[in-house]
Amino acid sequence: MPSDFIPLHAIPVVVVPAGLRAGELSGNAPALLREIAEMLRRLLSSNEPSAIDLQALPLTPADLAWLRDRLGEGEVSVALSADGDSSLDETACPGVWWVTHRNPQGAVVSEFIEVAYVPEVVRAPREDVVIGLESLESLSAELT
Amino acid sequence: MHGPLIETLARQGVTRRTFMKYCATLASMMALPPAAGRAMAEAMAAAPSASKRPSVIWLPFQECTGCTESITRSHSPTLEGLIFDVISLDYQETLMAAAGHQAEEALHAAMKANEGKYLLIVDGSIPLGLDGAYSCIGGKSNLETLKEVAKGAAAIVAMGSCAAYGGLPRANPNPTGAVSVADIIKDKPIINIPGCPPIPVVMTGVLAHFLTFGSLPELDKLGRPKAFYGETIHDRCYRRPFYDQGKFAKTFDDEGARNGWCLFELGCKGPITHNACATVKWNGGTSWPVESGHGCLGCSEPDFWDGGGFYKALSMPANPLKMVAGAAAVGVAVGVATSVLNRGKKGAARAAHEKTTLADLEK
After folding, report:
1. Closest Cα in chain B to A122
2. Which of B64, B95, B139, B204 is deepest in the core (most CB within 10 A)?
């Protein structure tokens, strides 16, 4: 046995305070509230929608939870099933949407805060409506 | 396949909403502002779908097949996969069914039929030592093959750090005389997609860009697409706030490490490494090295293998390598403490290509 051998029980076990990492705020989130306010002013004055890419910012999970908590829950939640499930939830501030895109395996692929009256992806695209009409017409044609 | 790309995709069951979602995510991965997602959707939707799938020839040279391993991981049934269906991969030794003379015939048939139009992908470095005898395919040296196939290519993609910079085979003392694609081919547009290996979506994203827009993406001074390599790992790192607050892990098992603090003092090369790992992540977005508790090795930068030790802080003044020159100033404040700790190793580190030893790991 080497002289510098340390028995296993001699290694001190340090208990990390629960949630220290996940619960640590970076201090970067409050600034986003001001940015969202500015985006809402822009929407009101010029009808211009905008978005913040949450994955592009140095935010800890705690920051995101803090932000989501401050923005609150609104009246509308949209579930989008397109190559995986996405959720578009309006926050307690009307016009501010929390958008989470997932892949078919359920992993989050992108996350945004969108400021818009209605997120663009919710509107039925004109070209898809045309395709829908065509299939409806062929459906009624089969019935007659 | 005629008409706009979006119609081709629509026939494959891809709705416009799916396409918009894909473009929003792609823009996020490329670190572009969210508004770029919509611009991209419009441009890609309007892009004409080629009447014939463009030919792609993939040549493996002095490599470990890790790049191929990585790119095949992007083949889950996603939209990248569908866009990828738009190409005709005419030669790829690892993936193709043909072998021997049949494989070589397929290569030459594709080169002849698509002369001047095919996209050439190269992974692996090209050994020049012993007249290229270190790596031969079908009795020809890689040098001969590269020159022959590059002649008729529209553009060349140097996939992975070996093709882009020479990579591991070129590591000191470079026994095979390995060089990069750009060291040999001077008259063709070359896109470097470094990484060991590169991130799957970065590879398919660059190909999708070339095939949909018909042009090369904007490149930085090392020939890398700015969309993916425009910012450093450090700038996009979720642990960056801890760096700004001066909270660092000092060993891999201290409280700082357990708390997920910045790994700068443990040798993280994030501040000088340009790549998209921090946003795109790995294994389908599961995690990435820093999230797993290990510093960035800097694998998408030239000569990363000879960087003087993976576990040495960038701020160490003793570190003699040119790779670090630009970053030395970044960590001056924290560097003082680190350099004191490492004073004993200073002298040894002066040798230009010091190997990482067990002692380096046991700070």
Report:
1. B17
2. B204
